[in-house]
Amino acid sequence: MTPKQELRAAMRALRKRLAGADPEAAERAAGHADALPPGEIVALYRAMGSELDTDALANVLHQSGRRLCLPVVLERDAAMIFRAWAPGEPLELDAAGCPAPLPLADAVAPDLIVTPLLAFDALGGRLGQGGGYYDRTFAVLPDARRIGFAYAGQQVEQLDLEPHDIRLHGVLTETGYRAVP
Questions:
Q1: pLDDT below 50 — which residues of the chain?
Q2: What is the radius of gyration, based on Cα positions, of the chain?
């Protein structure tokens, strides 16, 4: 395994432990939603495995009047698109096997993209699963604010980023929102 693959494996294990140790973390993180940057259309994700669940955050944002959307993978090597979505609306699996809005939902361009991650650093570095979906998407939506959603314990000292890696503008955790300086 490469050092990046080893780090991913270690961070998956850590995230799983954090999820088991603190089942209320997502609810507490949603309590800090008012600190997020402005954005009329907010892209969330449907949590898979030990990713921090976005259900409580979706409810808070929806109740505050923000429009929501979810990413949709249409092609494995392309940027994701986003379709409008509200809590409770039906979902189907996309080309990557992730829950996504039905094709009849409107395609939208989010102002704010909330992304899952395995690790983050104080400079906005993000370690994802390795598929490149979010980095490709960030590249085609450069004006959207990029916010990680994670357990505070997923922060690392510093990530070694590659040229295609795009930094976050901030991270929302159960301890609050931290903008990247």
A1: none
A2: 15
